[in-house]
Automatic annotation (TrEMBL):
Protein name as annotated: CRISPR type III-associated protein domain-containing protein
Statement: the UniProt record of this protein carries the keyword Zinc: no
Domain CRISPR type III-associated protein: residue ranges: 30-248
Signal peptide: none
InterPro entries, A to Z: CRISPR_Csm3_endoribonuclease, RAMP_III_fam
PANTHER family: CRISPR SYSTEM CMS ENDORIBONUCLEASE CSM3
Keyword line: Antiviral defense
Pfam families xrefs: RAMPs
Protein species of origin: Thermogemmatispora tikiterensis
GO BP field: defense response to virus
């Protein structure tokens, strides 16, 4: 971890200062049909309608894509954690068992467990000792909780709702049939046929992700997750076991605003940005009306992801 990144982790108040911002834009293209449930308050005749805008156009809630992205990242980091030389860890949002947490406390390694996975012990400590120092809790969070958020810390990455470009919407929503299966007999249950709505394959959604005050670990994690969607291994929505939700991220571009440090020093780390350059970049960002005008650098998404993943393995 870079010294500057550690400084911001140790001082959560200093972390509030804007020091960088990354904007990722692209198109999420469905390779199979998509189903994201829209609840019962709808004019649709289907028992399982999809989520719609007020104009009755399908969209993907940002929370749905963020959840799929986080799940993808956590699976990869759990695998990478088996390689002890790599500097990433995740709790997977899995609450630790009471016996496991008590043993860790007795052995003096409780701070090695992500606070998200030991919320029970933190609640007990608060009850016994009053308020705990938040900076210590933030420092112990695993890398995925630092990036995507936890009960103790806000997320550093924001995903906007994904909408279909107006000129690309075909106006078609498909209805598919399904039947409930009796597990014992492996046959369809009688009178339990149902239907559900899907967005057709090849539908394209506009994607926009903002990453702010990112550490090197944040960039590595997000690049790991997005690379899966770029290469067609990502999935989103419900009924995935039936073949729905396969997608591919296309035309990915990364807009970069670095106000304090950026890649390029002789030792492979970050070189400092001068006060004059920082002022110029901030002024450009505040006055610009488009991403091209606001951000001082634009990169091809695939190249950015590949470089970040290479840096991850070089950091081991």
């Amino acid at each position: 971890m870079a010294v500057q990144d550690k400084l911001y982790q140790d001082d959560p108040v200093r972390r509030l200062r804007l020091r960088n911002r990354y904007l990722f834009t692209g198109r999420l293209v469905m390779e199979t049909a998509l189903h994201i449930g829209g609840g019962k308050l709808t004019l649709s005749s289907s028992r399982n309608p999809i989520v719609l805008t007020p104009e009755n156009i399908p969209f993907i809630p940002g929370s749905s894509f963020k959840g799929a992205l986080r799940s993808t990242v956590e699976k990869l980091v759990a695998t990478l954690a088996e390689l002890p030389q790599l500097p990433l860890r995740t709790c997977g949002l899995i609450e630790g068992e009471a016996e496991e947490l008590e043993q860790a406390r007795q052995e003096g390694r409780l701070d090695k467990i992500c606070p998200t996975a030991r919320q029970r012990t933190i609640t007990e400590e608060r009850r016994q000792r009053g308020e705990l120092a938040l900076e210590n809790i933030l420092k112990d969070l695993c890398h995925t909780c630092q990036l995507f958020g936890s009960p103790f810390s806000a997320s550093r990455v924001n995903v906007s709702d994904l909408y279909i470009p107006e000129e690309e919407w075909s106006g078609i929503i498909q209805i598919r049939d399904g039947v409930a299966i009796e597990r014992d007999s492996e046959r369809a249950k009688e009178r339990l046929k149902y239907d559900y709505e899907v967005v057709p394959a090849s539908t394209s959604f506009s994607l926009e992700i903002t990453l702010e005050n990112a550490t090197a670990e944040d960039r590595w994690l997000l690049s790991l997750g997005l690379s899966e969607f770029v290469n067609g291994f990502g999935a989103i929505g419900g009924k995935r076991s039936r073949g729905l939700g396969a997608c591919r991220l296309r035309d990915l571009r990364v807009y970069i605003l670095e106000l304090e440090g950026e890649e390029g020093s002789a030792d492979g780390g970050q070189r400092a940005v001068s006060a004059e350059e920082r002022t110029r970049r901030l002024q450009r960002y505040l006055l610009g009306r488009s991403p091209e005008e606001k951000f001082h650098r634009v990169e091809d998404g695939k190249s950015f992801l590949a470089r970040q993943i290479e840096q991850l393995f070089q950091a081991s």
